Amino acid sequence: MARSARRLVARGRAAAESARLSRTARRVKRERLTYLSVGKLRSLEGALRAVLRAEVTGDVIECGVALGGSGIVLAHGLPEGRVFHGFDLFGTIPAPTARDPGEAHARYARISAGKAEGLGPGDRYYGYVDDLLGQVEASFARHGVPPAPGRVELHRGLFEDVLQIEAPVALAHVDADWHDPVSCCLARIGPQLSRGGMIVVDDYNDYGGCRTACHEFLAGTQDMRVLRARPQLVIQRLADTPPPS
Predict the structure, then answer these.
(1) Which residues on adjacent β-strands are paired with residue 124?
(2) What is the pLDDT of residues 114-160, one digit of tens each?
(3) How far apart are alpha carbons 70 and 63 in whole angstroms?
(4) Could you tell me how far CA 4 lies from the centroid of its own chain?
């Protein structure tokens, strides 16, 4: 009886939390287009609202698009004049390195062996999907934010090859799993992050290599602060620092 009551309470809390998401976020969760939990989606939407409300200069970047769900949420929330840039290999993710602990290598071994599972019954793991980029483009279009220059731009390739940022960034969502890609993203985004801008790092509490990369990045900066560490790490550039050159 007590266990059943706890389950009912947990379901009630989950339903209440989900109700606080935007309609777009609820829809991408329903359609199984995102690996983010309801709590992480709420955190990400909250960060977007905060930078828009504060009129922080710049575009929105996502590193690690996967099936496109969180990118659709971000793009849908942007007013005219701001651009969403999504960067991804749009295929199987690269292997972790010696900078990543055992859990990352165990996870990758399952992925590379073809044993990773999708988000729901009958779903393939996104890294195994043929023409993943085409599928993601179709999902963006279906949700009213079709890829178009100067509005929604998707960039295919390794971060070290394609993540070239020339304009100010208001918000970045880094969902890159392992140490080296996370480190690359932070190093490329950090110098262009506007005053008051935020970086949301999705895997901070999931993978030790990601956590190490974040700590290394923060140790090398004087003008960043941690707003929260759960459910994701959220870093903000202090509002009284000089703008990116």
Answers:
(1) 117
(2) 999 999 998 999 999 999 999 999 999 999 999 999 999 999 999 99
(3) 11
(4) 34
Of 64, 114, 111, 112, the C-alpha closest to 89 is 64
Structure tokens at 231: 């459910």
Instruction: Give the three-state DSSP class for 231.
Output: coil
Instruction: Tell me the one-letter amino acid at 236.
Output: Q
Containing H/E element for 220?
A: none
CB atoms within 10 A of CB 89: 19
Structure tokens at 217: 């990045």
The third-level CATH classification (topology) of the domain covering 2-237 is Rossmann fold (3.40.50)
The pair of three-digit structure tokens given for residue 63, joined into one six-digit string:
């590193």
Please state, in angstroms and rounded to a whole number, the distance separating the CA atoms of residues 50 and 65.
22
Distance of alpha carbon 223 from alpha carbon 239, whole angstroms: 9
Distance of alpha carbon 33 from alpha carbon 134, whole angstroms = 14
Show the tokens assigned to 91: 């295929």
Between CA 234 and CA 148 the distance in angstroms is 29
Terminal CA-CA length for the chain: 62
Query: pTM for the full model?
Result: 0.91
CA dihedral 105, 108, 114, 115 (to 10 degrees): 70
How far, CA to CA in Å, does 210 sit from each of 60, 165, 228?
A: 21, 21, 16
- Dist CA 162 CA 151 (whole Å): 18
Strand duo 233-237 + 193-201: pairing: antiparallel
Instruction: Classify 122 in phi/psi space as left (phi over 0), alpha (psi -120 to 50) or beta.
Output: left
**Mean pLDDT for the chain overall:** 92
